[in-house]
Amino acid sequence: MDRDLFNAKKKMSKMDNPNDASWAQDVSFSSLEKKITDSKKATEFALRPLNDNGKFRSGKKSRTKANEKTGKEVQPEAVDYSSLKKGRRAFLIFLAVWCTILIAGIAVFLIRFNAFLTDYEAVYQASLPFHKMDDIMATFNSRDASAIYELISEKPDITNFETEENVENYISKLIGEKELAYTETKESSDKNPVYYITADNYIIATVYLKMSDQKRAHDLPNYETDRIEVYTEPEWNVKIKAADNCKIYVNDVELSSDYVYRTEESEEKHFADFTRLPSTKYYEVDDLYEQPSVRAVNSFGLEIEPELNNSTGVYEVPFTVDKDTEKEMIEFAKYAVDIYTKVVCRELGDNSLDTVFTKDNLIVKEIKSNRSSLAYFPRHTTPEVEDKIIEFIPYSEDAFFCDIEHTQHMLIYGVRPQDYVTNARFYYYKENGSWKVCALVY
Protein backbone atom coordinates (compact mmCIF):
# COMPACT_ATOMS: atom_id res chain seq x y z
CA MET A 1 0.00 0.00 0.00
CA ASP A 2 1.12 3.53 -0.71
CA ARG A 3 2.67 5.08 2.40
CA ASP A 4 0.76 8.38 2.07
CA LEU A 5 -2.56 6.53 1.77
CA PHE A 6 -1.71 4.49 4.82
CA ASN A 7 -1.04 7.58 6.89
CA ALA A 8 -4.23 9.24 5.67
CA LYS A 9 -6.35 6.27 6.68
CA LYS A 10 -4.71 6.19 9.99
CA LYS A 11 -5.48 9.85 10.61
CA MET A 12 -9.11 9.55 9.52
CA SER A 13 -9.76 6.69 11.93
CA LYS A 14 -9.29 9.06 14.83
CA MET A 15 -7.87 6.08 16.63
CA ASP A 16 -7.26 6.84 20.25
CA ASN A 17 -5.97 3.49 20.97
CA PRO A 18 -2.84 2.80 19.16
CA ASN A 19 -3.42 -0.89 19.55
CA ASP A 20 -6.62 -0.73 17.49
CA ALA A 21 -5.74 -1.73 13.92
CA SER A 22 -9.21 -2.18 12.47
CA TRP A 23 -8.59 0.73 10.14
CA ALA A 24 -5.80 -1.21 8.58
CA GLN A 25 -8.07 -4.14 7.90
CA ASP A 26 -10.58 -1.88 6.17
CA VAL A 27 -7.94 -0.32 4.02
CA SER A 28 -6.16 -3.47 2.88
CA PHE A 29 -8.62 -6.32 2.73
CA SER A 30 -11.67 -4.57 1.38
CA SER A 31 -9.85 -3.14 -1.64
CA LEU A 32 -8.01 -6.40 -2.24
CA GLU A 33 -11.23 -8.36 -2.06
CA LYS A 34 -12.86 -6.07 -4.59
CA LYS A 35 -9.97 -6.45 -7.05
CA ILE A 36 -10.00 -10.25 -6.76
CA THR A 37 -13.74 -10.34 -7.32
CA ASP A 38 -13.57 -8.11 -10.40
CA SER A 39 -10.77 -10.19 -11.84
CA LYS A 40 -12.67 -13.42 -11.29
CA LYS A 41 -15.78 -12.03 -12.98
CA ALA A 42 -13.79 -10.93 -15.96
CA THR A 43 -12.18 -14.36 -16.28
CA GLU A 44 -15.49 -16.20 -16.09
CA PHE A 45 -17.01 -13.84 -18.59
CA ALA A 46 -14.22 -14.38 -21.07
CA LEU A 47 -14.31 -18.19 -20.78
CA ARG A 48 -18.06 -18.68 -21.16
CA PRO A 49 -19.05 -20.94 -24.15
CA LEU A 50 -21.32 -19.87 -27.02
CA ASN A 51 -24.93 -21.06 -27.19
CA ASP A 52 -26.81 -22.24 -30.31
CA ASN A 53 -27.56 -18.70 -31.40
CA GLY A 54 -23.94 -17.76 -31.42
CA LYS A 55 -24.22 -15.88 -28.13
CA PHE A 56 -22.23 -16.39 -24.98
CA ARG A 57 -24.04 -18.36 -22.33
CA SER A 58 -24.62 -16.48 -19.11
CA GLY A 59 -22.45 -17.57 -16.25
CA LYS A 60 -23.07 -17.51 -12.59
CA LYS A 61 -25.04 -14.76 -11.09
CA SER A 62 -23.03 -11.75 -10.10
CA ARG A 63 -23.69 -8.57 -8.41
CA THR A 64 -23.11 -5.12 -9.70
CA LYS A 65 -22.49 -2.11 -7.57
CA ALA A 66 -26.12 -1.09 -8.00
CA ASN A 67 -27.42 -4.52 -6.93
CA GLU A 68 -25.13 -4.61 -3.99
CA LYS A 69 -27.18 -1.78 -2.53
CA THR A 70 -30.52 -3.53 -3.19
CA GLY A 71 -29.22 -6.96 -2.40
CA LYS A 72 -30.82 -8.44 -5.54
CA GLU A 73 -29.14 -10.81 -7.92
CA VAL A 74 -29.63 -10.19 -11.62
CA GLN A 75 -28.53 -12.05 -14.71
CA PRO A 76 -25.96 -10.18 -16.87
CA GLU A 77 -27.24 -9.17 -20.26
CA ALA A 78 -26.35 -11.57 -23.12
CA VAL A 79 -23.83 -10.04 -25.57
CA ASP A 80 -24.43 -10.37 -29.36
CA TYR A 81 -21.08 -11.25 -30.87
CA SER A 82 -22.27 -12.01 -34.42
CA SER A 83 -21.66 -8.40 -35.34
CA LEU A 84 -18.17 -8.74 -33.99
CA LYS A 85 -17.62 -11.85 -36.14
CA LYS A 86 -18.85 -10.05 -39.25
CA GLY A 87 -16.57 -7.14 -38.50
CA ARG A 88 -13.63 -9.47 -38.12
CA ARG A 89 -14.50 -11.16 -41.42
CA ALA A 90 -14.71 -7.79 -43.15
CA PHE A 91 -11.42 -6.79 -41.60
CA LEU A 92 -9.78 -9.97 -42.91
CA ILE A 93 -11.17 -9.30 -46.39
CA PHE A 94 -9.91 -5.72 -46.21
CA LEU A 95 -6.55 -6.96 -45.02
CA ALA A 96 -6.34 -9.48 -47.90
CA VAL A 97 -7.31 -6.84 -50.48
CA TRP A 98 -4.88 -4.36 -48.99
CA CYS A 99 -2.07 -6.93 -49.04
CA THR A 100 -2.92 -7.85 -52.64
CA ILE A 101 -2.83 -4.21 -53.68
CA LEU A 102 0.40 -3.72 -51.76
CA ILE A 103 2.02 -6.77 -53.33
CA ALA A 104 0.82 -5.70 -56.80
CA GLY A 105 2.20 -2.22 -56.20
CA ILE A 106 5.53 -3.65 -55.08
CA ALA A 107 5.59 -5.97 -58.11
CA VAL A 108 4.88 -3.08 -60.49
CA PHE A 109 7.55 -1.02 -58.78
CA LEU A 110 10.08 -3.86 -59.02
CA ILE A 111 9.26 -4.46 -62.70
CA ARG A 112 9.63 -0.80 -63.49
CA PHE A 113 12.76 -0.52 -61.40
CA ASN A 114 14.23 -3.54 -63.14
CA ALA A 115 13.35 -1.99 -66.52
CA PHE A 116 15.01 1.22 -65.38
CA LEU A 117 18.13 -0.63 -64.27
CA THR A 118 18.21 -2.60 -67.54
CA ASP A 119 17.84 0.56 -69.60
CA TYR A 120 20.36 2.41 -67.46
CA GLU A 121 22.86 -0.43 -67.83
CA ALA A 122 22.36 -0.49 -71.60
CA VAL A 123 22.76 3.29 -71.88
CA TYR A 124 25.74 3.24 -69.52
CA GLN A 125 27.48 0.52 -71.51
CA ALA A 126 26.79 2.39 -74.74
CA SER A 127 28.24 5.54 -73.20
CA LEU A 128 31.63 3.95 -72.57
CA PRO A 129 34.21 5.16 -75.11
CA PHE A 130 35.57 1.72 -75.92
CA HIS A 131 32.26 0.88 -77.59
CA LYS A 132 32.94 3.71 -80.03
CA MET A 133 36.37 2.21 -80.59
CA ASP A 134 34.78 -1.18 -81.25
CA ASP A 135 32.75 0.40 -84.07
CA ILE A 136 35.91 1.94 -85.56
CA MET A 137 37.85 -1.31 -85.19
CA ALA A 138 35.10 -3.14 -87.06
CA THR A 139 36.03 -1.08 -90.12
CA PHE A 140 39.73 -1.81 -89.68
CA ASN A 141 39.10 -5.53 -89.14
CA SER A 142 37.13 -5.63 -92.37
CA ARG A 143 40.44 -4.89 -94.18
CA ASP A 144 38.47 -2.61 -96.50
CA ALA A 145 41.11 -0.06 -97.47
CA SER A 146 38.56 2.26 -99.10
CA ALA A 147 36.45 2.39 -95.93
CA ILE A 148 39.54 2.94 -93.79
CA TYR A 149 40.68 5.73 -96.10
CA GLU A 150 37.31 7.44 -95.64
CA LEU A 151 37.84 7.40 -91.85
CA ILE A 152 41.00 9.48 -92.13
CA SER A 153 40.23 13.02 -90.98
CA GLU A 154 43.05 14.78 -92.81
CA LYS A 155 43.70 13.00 -96.07
CA PRO A 156 47.40 12.55 -96.93
CA ASP A 157 49.06 14.65 -99.60
CA ILE A 158 49.07 12.91 -102.96
CA THR A 159 51.35 13.89 -105.84
CA ASN A 160 50.19 14.34 -109.41
CA PHE A 161 51.51 10.89 -110.19
CA GLU A 162 49.17 8.97 -107.88
CA THR A 163 45.55 8.83 -106.79
CA GLU A 164 43.60 7.75 -103.71
CA GLU A 165 43.76 4.22 -105.04
CA ASN A 166 47.53 4.18 -104.52
CA VAL A 167 47.08 5.25 -100.90
CA GLU A 168 44.43 2.57 -100.40
CA ASN A 169 46.81 -0.03 -101.80
CA TYR A 170 49.44 1.25 -99.36
CA ILE A 171 46.96 0.85 -96.47
CA SER A 172 46.13 -2.69 -97.60
CA LYS A 173 49.81 -3.62 -97.53
CA LEU A 174 50.24 -1.84 -94.19
CA ILE A 175 47.52 -3.91 -92.55
CA GLY A 176 47.90 -7.12 -94.52
CA GLU A 177 46.99 -10.13 -92.40
CA LYS A 178 48.45 -8.63 -89.22
CA GLU A 179 46.70 -8.85 -85.87
CA LEU A 180 44.86 -5.59 -85.18
CA ALA A 181 44.21 -4.22 -81.70
CA TYR A 182 43.72 -0.94 -79.89
CA THR A 183 45.01 0.41 -76.59
CA GLU A 184 44.38 3.58 -74.63
CA THR A 185 47.22 6.09 -74.59
CA LYS A 186 48.73 7.92 -71.62
CA GLU A 187 47.35 11.24 -72.84
CA SER A 188 43.80 9.89 -72.77
CA SER A 189 41.21 11.46 -70.42
CA ASP A 190 37.55 10.96 -69.59
CA LYS A 191 36.61 13.98 -71.65
CA ASN A 192 38.97 13.28 -74.55
CA PRO A 193 39.87 9.58 -74.84
CA VAL A 194 42.79 8.75 -77.15
CA TYR A 195 43.60 5.29 -78.52
CA TYR A 196 46.35 3.70 -80.61
CA ILE A 197 45.49 1.14 -83.28
CA THR A 198 48.27 -1.39 -83.76
CA ALA A 199 49.08 -4.04 -86.36
CA ASP A 200 51.26 -6.74 -84.82
CA ASN A 201 52.12 -4.23 -82.05
CA TYR A 202 53.20 -1.61 -84.60
CA ILE A 203 51.24 1.64 -84.28
CA ILE A 204 49.44 2.42 -87.53
CA ALA A 205 46.80 4.93 -86.40
CA THR A 206 45.66 7.19 -83.57
CA VAL A 207 41.99 7.80 -82.75
CA TYR A 208 40.91 10.93 -80.89
CA LEU A 209 37.45 10.88 -79.29
CA LYS A 210 35.62 13.71 -77.57
CA MET A 211 32.65 14.03 -75.25
CA SER A 212 29.68 15.39 -77.15
CA ASP A 213 27.58 18.28 -75.84
CA GLN A 214 24.51 16.16 -76.47
CA LYS A 215 24.07 13.79 -73.55
CA ARG A 216 22.57 10.33 -73.60
CA ALA A 217 19.57 9.30 -71.51
CA HIS A 218 20.07 9.47 -67.74
CA ASP A 219 22.52 12.33 -68.34
CA LEU A 220 25.25 9.89 -69.35
CA PRO A 221 28.06 11.04 -71.68
CA ASN A 222 28.02 10.53 -75.43
CA TYR A 223 31.35 10.16 -77.29
CA GLU A 224 31.98 11.00 -80.91
CA THR A 225 35.01 10.86 -83.18
CA ASP A 226 37.15 13.98 -83.10
CA ARG A 227 39.73 12.82 -85.67
CA ILE A 228 41.53 9.71 -86.90
CA GLU A 229 45.13 9.74 -88.06
CA VAL A 230 46.42 6.83 -90.11
CA TYR A 231 50.18 6.83 -90.51
CA THR A 232 50.57 6.88 -94.27
CA GLU A 233 54.20 7.53 -95.07
CA PRO A 234 55.17 7.61 -98.77
CA GLU A 235 58.14 5.31 -99.10
CA TRP A 236 58.98 5.29 -102.79
CA ASN A 237 61.03 7.61 -104.95
CA VAL A 238 62.38 7.17 -108.43
CA LYS A 239 65.41 8.56 -110.27
CA ILE A 240 65.69 8.46 -114.04
CA LYS A 241 68.59 9.13 -116.39
CA ALA A 242 67.68 9.96 -119.98
CA ALA A 243 68.67 12.04 -122.97
CA ASP A 244 67.02 15.41 -123.18
CA ASN A 245 65.33 14.44 -126.46
CA CYS A 246 63.29 11.80 -124.60
CA LYS A 247 59.94 12.25 -122.96
CA ILE A 248 59.77 10.59 -119.53
CA TYR A 249 56.53 9.31 -118.00
CA VAL A 250 55.95 8.23 -114.40
CA ASN A 251 52.62 6.45 -113.93
CA ASP A 252 51.74 7.78 -117.40
CA VAL A 253 52.29 11.40 -116.32
CA GLU A 254 54.94 13.24 -118.32
CA LEU A 255 57.75 14.79 -116.29
CA SER A 256 58.44 18.47 -116.74
CA SER A 257 61.74 20.24 -116.26
CA ASP A 258 60.70 20.88 -112.64
CA TYR A 259 61.75 17.32 -111.83
CA VAL A 260 65.25 17.65 -113.36
CA TYR A 261 67.88 17.87 -110.64
CA ARG A 262 71.00 17.56 -112.79
CA THR A 263 72.07 17.98 -116.43
CA GLU A 264 75.23 16.67 -118.07
CA GLU A 265 76.44 17.65 -121.50
CA SER A 266 77.66 14.88 -123.77
CA GLU A 267 81.35 14.07 -123.40
CA GLU A 268 81.50 12.83 -126.98
CA LYS A 269 83.45 15.58 -128.76
CA HIS A 270 83.69 13.95 -132.19
CA PHE A 271 80.38 15.42 -133.28
CA ALA A 272 81.24 18.94 -132.16
CA ASP A 273 81.85 20.22 -135.70
CA PHE A 274 78.76 18.55 -137.12
CA THR A 275 75.83 18.39 -134.69
CA ARG A 276 74.90 18.77 -131.08
CA LEU A 277 74.41 15.55 -129.21
CA PRO A 278 71.59 15.44 -126.66
CA SER A 279 72.57 16.17 -123.07
CA THR A 280 71.76 13.78 -120.26
CA LYS A 281 69.14 14.78 -117.72
CA TYR A 282 68.54 13.29 -114.30
CA TYR A 283 64.97 13.27 -113.03
CA GLU A 284 63.68 12.54 -109.53
CA VAL A 285 60.15 11.97 -108.27
CA ASP A 286 59.53 11.26 -104.59
CA ASP A 287 56.68 10.96 -102.05
CA LEU A 288 55.15 7.99 -103.82
CA TYR A 289 53.09 5.35 -102.00
CA GLU A 290 53.75 2.58 -104.50
CA GLN A 291 56.54 1.60 -106.84
CA PRO A 292 55.78 3.57 -110.00
CA SER A 293 55.81 2.53 -113.61
CA VAL A 294 58.43 4.35 -115.69
CA ARG A 295 58.57 4.61 -119.46
CA ALA A 296 60.17 6.86 -122.04
CA VAL A 297 59.54 7.91 -125.62
CA ASN A 298 62.68 8.86 -127.54
CA SER A 299 63.18 11.23 -130.45
CA PHE A 300 62.32 8.44 -132.91
CA GLY A 301 58.87 8.09 -131.29
CA LEU A 302 59.83 4.72 -129.88
CA GLU A 303 58.49 3.77 -126.44
CA ILE A 304 61.25 2.47 -124.19
CA GLU A 305 61.17 0.73 -120.83
CA PRO A 306 64.04 2.07 -118.72
CA GLU A 307 66.48 -0.36 -117.15
CA LEU A 308 67.16 -0.19 -113.40
CA ASN A 309 70.83 0.07 -112.54
CA ASN A 310 70.98 -1.87 -109.29
CA SER A 311 74.31 -0.34 -108.26
CA THR A 312 73.07 3.25 -108.51
CA GLY A 313 69.33 2.76 -108.08
CA VAL A 314 68.75 4.89 -111.18
CA TYR A 315 66.50 4.00 -114.09
CA GLU A 316 68.50 4.48 -117.28
CA VAL A 317 66.90 5.11 -120.63
CA PRO A 318 69.14 3.60 -123.31
CA PHE A 319 69.65 5.14 -126.71
CA THR A 320 67.63 3.06 -129.09
CA VAL A 321 65.85 3.27 -132.37
CA ASP A 322 63.22 1.38 -134.29
CA LYS A 323 64.32 -1.76 -136.10
CA ASP A 324 64.16 -0.31 -139.60
CA THR A 325 66.26 2.72 -138.73
CA GLU A 326 68.69 0.56 -136.77
CA LYS A 327 69.09 -1.74 -139.76
CA GLU A 328 69.72 1.22 -142.02
CA MET A 329 72.38 2.63 -139.70
CA ILE A 330 74.20 -0.64 -139.15
CA GLU A 331 74.21 -1.56 -142.81
CA PHE A 332 75.80 1.76 -143.68
CA ALA A 333 78.32 1.32 -140.86
CA LYS A 334 79.37 -2.08 -142.25
CA TYR A 335 79.59 -0.66 -145.75
CA ALA A 336 81.69 2.31 -144.63
CA VAL A 337 84.12 0.14 -142.65
CA ASP A 338 84.44 -2.23 -145.57
CA ILE A 339 85.29 0.65 -147.94
CA TYR A 340 87.77 2.06 -145.46
CA THR A 341 89.60 -1.28 -144.96
CA LYS A 342 89.75 -1.96 -148.69
CA VAL A 343 91.36 1.44 -149.24
CA VAL A 344 93.84 0.79 -146.46
CA CYS A 345 94.63 -2.66 -147.91
CA ARG A 346 94.99 -1.13 -151.34
CA GLU A 347 92.07 -3.03 -152.75
CA LEU A 348 90.40 0.28 -153.62
CA GLY A 349 91.69 3.70 -154.50
CA ASP A 350 91.74 6.66 -152.13
CA ASN A 351 88.89 8.41 -153.86
CA SER A 352 86.50 5.70 -152.67
CA LEU A 353 86.70 7.31 -149.23
CA ASP A 354 84.81 10.34 -150.54
CA THR A 355 81.69 8.22 -150.87
CA VAL A 356 81.52 7.34 -147.18
CA PHE A 357 83.20 10.28 -145.38
CA THR A 358 81.87 13.79 -144.87
CA LYS A 359 82.94 16.54 -147.20
CA ASP A 360 86.46 17.87 -146.61
CA ASN A 361 87.02 15.34 -143.88
CA LEU A 362 90.48 15.63 -142.32
CA ILE A 363 90.88 11.87 -142.08
CA VAL A 364 90.48 11.50 -145.81
CA LYS A 365 92.96 14.28 -146.43
CA GLU A 366 95.53 12.61 -144.17
CA ILE A 367 95.10 9.25 -145.85
CA LYS A 368 95.51 10.77 -149.28
CA SER A 369 98.54 12.83 -148.28
CA ASN A 370 100.24 9.98 -146.41
CA ARG A 371 99.54 7.19 -148.81
CA SER A 372 103.06 5.86 -148.49
CA SER A 373 102.79 5.37 -144.77
CA LEU A 374 99.94 2.89 -145.01
CA ALA A 375 100.68 -0.68 -144.01
CA TYR A 376 102.10 -2.86 -146.76
CA PHE A 377 99.93 -5.70 -147.93
CA PRO A 378 101.21 -8.20 -150.51
CA ARG A 379 99.08 -9.19 -153.37
CA HIS A 380 95.93 -10.83 -152.03
CA THR A 381 92.25 -11.33 -152.39
CA THR A 382 89.49 -11.04 -149.78
CA PRO A 383 86.83 -13.57 -150.61
CA GLU A 384 85.05 -13.15 -147.29
CA VAL A 385 84.62 -10.58 -144.51
CA GLU A 386 83.03 -10.88 -141.08
CA ASP A 387 81.54 -8.07 -138.97
CA LYS A 388 80.83 -8.11 -135.25
CA ILE A 389 78.95 -5.23 -133.67
CA ILE A 390 80.64 -4.32 -130.41
CA GLU A 391 78.59 -1.24 -129.50
CA PHE A 392 75.83 0.74 -131.17
CA ILE A 393 74.47 4.07 -129.93
CA PRO A 394 71.85 5.98 -131.93
CA TYR A 395 72.18 9.43 -130.38
CA SER A 396 69.59 11.11 -132.55
CA GLU A 397 68.03 11.13 -135.98
CA ASP A 398 71.23 12.53 -137.49
CA ALA A 399 74.01 11.01 -135.36
CA PHE A 400 75.02 7.54 -134.21
CA PHE A 401 78.07 5.62 -133.12
CA CYS A 402 78.98 2.06 -134.07
CA ASP A 403 81.99 0.05 -132.99
CA ILE A 404 82.51 -2.79 -135.45
CA GLU A 405 85.08 -5.52 -135.35
CA HIS A 406 85.71 -6.03 -139.08
CA THR A 407 87.64 -9.17 -140.10
CA GLN A 408 88.98 -9.69 -143.62
CA HIS A 409 89.66 -13.31 -144.48
CA MET A 410 92.45 -12.85 -147.06
CA LEU A 411 94.25 -15.21 -149.36
CA ILE A 412 97.85 -14.08 -149.85
CA TYR A 413 98.89 -14.71 -153.41
CA GLY A 414 95.62 -16.52 -153.71
CA VAL A 415 96.69 -19.53 -151.63
CA ARG A 416 97.81 -18.59 -148.10
CA PRO A 417 94.96 -17.54 -145.78
CA GLN A 418 95.44 -14.57 -143.51
CA ASP A 419 92.98 -12.61 -141.38
CA TYR A 420 93.23 -8.88 -141.03
CA VAL A 421 91.09 -7.34 -138.22
CA THR A 422 90.10 -3.67 -138.11
CA ASN A 423 88.77 -2.55 -134.77
CA ALA A 424 87.99 1.16 -134.83
CA ARG A 425 85.30 3.41 -133.37
CA PHE A 426 83.38 5.08 -136.19
CA TYR A 427 81.10 8.09 -135.73
CA TYR A 428 78.35 8.77 -138.26
CA TYR A 429 76.50 11.92 -139.18
CA LYS A 430 73.68 12.44 -141.64
CA GLU A 431 74.94 15.00 -144.10
CA ASN A 432 72.41 16.35 -146.57
CA GLY A 433 70.15 13.40 -145.91
CA SER A 434 72.87 10.76 -146.37
CA TRP A 435 74.90 8.97 -143.75
CA LYS A 436 78.60 9.77 -143.66
CA VAL A 437 81.57 8.96 -141.44
CA CYS A 438 82.51 12.10 -139.55
CA ALA A 439 85.20 10.68 -137.29
CA LEU A 440 86.99 7.51 -136.31
CA VAL A 441 89.21 6.58 -133.40
CA TYR A 442 91.50 3.56 -133.17
List keywords for this structure.
442 residues, alpha+beta, Nuclear Transport Factor 2, Chain: A, four-stranded antiparallel β-sheet
Write up this protein:
With 442 residues, the chain is of the alpha+beta class. Among the domains are: 103 residues; 81 residues, no CATH class; 119 residues, Nuclear Transport Factor 2, Chain: A, CATH 3.10.450.50. 34% of the residues lie in helices and 28% in strands. The protein has 9 helices and 17 strands. The strands form 4 sheets. It has a 5-stranded mixed sheet, with no helix packed on it. It has a 4-stranded antiparallel sheet with strand order 1-2-3-4, covered by helices on one side. The longest helix is centred in the first third of the chain and has 46 residues. About 3% of the residues have low confidence.
